[in-house]
Amino acid sequence: MTDIVWHQHAIDQAARAGQKGQNPVLLWFTGLSGAGKSTLAGALEHALFAAGFHTYLLDGDNVRHGLCQDLGFSAEDRDENLRRVGEVAKLMVDAGLVVLSAFISPTREERDGIRAKFPHGQFIEVHVSTPIQVCEARDPKGLYLKARSGEIKDFTGISAPYEAPLAAELTIDTSKGDLATQVQALLDYLTAIQVIGTKTEIVDKLTALA
Ligand SMILES: Nc1ncnc2c1ncn2[C@@H]1O[C@H](COP(=O)(O)OS(=O)(=O)O)[C@@H](OP(=O)(O)O)[C@H]1O
Ligand SMILES: Nc1ncnc2c1ncn2[C@@H]1O[C@H](COP(=O)(O)OP(=O)(O)O)[C@@H](O)[C@H]1O
């Protein structure tokens, strides 16, 4: 029979991250509906996952149908939506994961509140700064049309505010350049801050994928 050794101390973030061979971070994508948050965060997650990173992407699809299904789009409900997402992301980072999130997150106060939960350097704000005219022209779900007609109330950028970040770590306008170049800019940033780069084989794989 295997001896079970009982340790009094909790397993900490460094131990969990070390077991996975990575530095955990939260990449927080913010921007208007249709700006390209989900597309960019999804493409980056695929690149990281394929290279062997342990990742998780939080977005409206997996959060607003479960954890936050009781919430709508009033300012109070968005605050609560993002507070819960921030707490979940904190637990996931604590578990040693590279976490990505894609929410409009319209106010600086909400985003800065989440940033404050993390040590310096572990919260990376990515402003997806695609102009509203481009987002409205894309209108993939027809929501801007409904917002303009008044069918949807409190729509970000039309009838509810969006406060652009003042000092995001990265700013990407998806109306310029292509997706591969934008993902490469994110990978370059992660390399520069040493989230990527502890294992040369991972760097080689990412270079091959780019
Ligand atoms: N009133 C209103 N305003 C803005 N967006 C609305 C609204 N109603 C529904 N939707 C759809 O919900 C998505 C935004 O949800 P989020 O959880 O990202 O928003 S928030 O951070 O809590 O503001 C957003 O998804 P994305 O288009 O992917 O950003 C919309 O499709
Ligand atoms: N990097 C990109 N380059 C060009 N078009 C993009 C890019 N990302 C997204 N799009 C277009 O914008 C639309 C909205 O993208 P999406 O990722 O769903 O935005 P968000 O999650 O911010 O609402 C997509 O359907 C696609 O047509």
Radius of gyration: 18 Å
Stretches where pLDDT is under 50 for at least 5 consecutive residues are none
Number of strands: 5
**Series of secondary-structure elements, N-terminal to C-terminal:** HEHEHHEHEHHEHH
Query: Which ligands occur here?
Result: 3'-phosphate-adenosine-5'-phosphate sulfate, adenosine-5'-diphosphate
The proportion of residues in beta strands is 5-15%
Oligomer: single chain
EC number: 2.7.1.25
Function: Catalyzes the synthesis of activated sulfate.
Keywords: ATP-binding, Kinase, Nucleotide-binding, Phosphoprotein, Transferase
Pathway: Sulfur metabolism; hydrogen sulfide biosynthesis; sulfite from sulfate: step 2/3
Q: Key terms for this structure?
A:
210 residues, Rossmann fold, five-stranded parallel β-sheet, 9 helices, globular, binds 3'-phosphate-adenosine-5'-phosphate sulfate, binds adenosine-5'-diphosphate
Structural account:
The structure is a single chain. The chain has 210 residues and is α/β, with parallel strands linked by helices. The chain has one domain: Rossmann fold, CATH 3.40.50. A 5-stranded parallel beta sheet has the order 2-3-1-4-5, with helices on both faces. Helix 2 crosses helix 8 and helix 4 packs parallel to helix 5. The longest helix has 20 residues. The radius of gyration is 18 Å and the shape is globular. The N and C termini lie far apart (48 Å). The model has no long low-confidence stretch (mean pLDDT 93). Bound molecules: 3'-phosphate-adenosine-5'-phosphate sulfate and adenosine-5'-diphosphate.
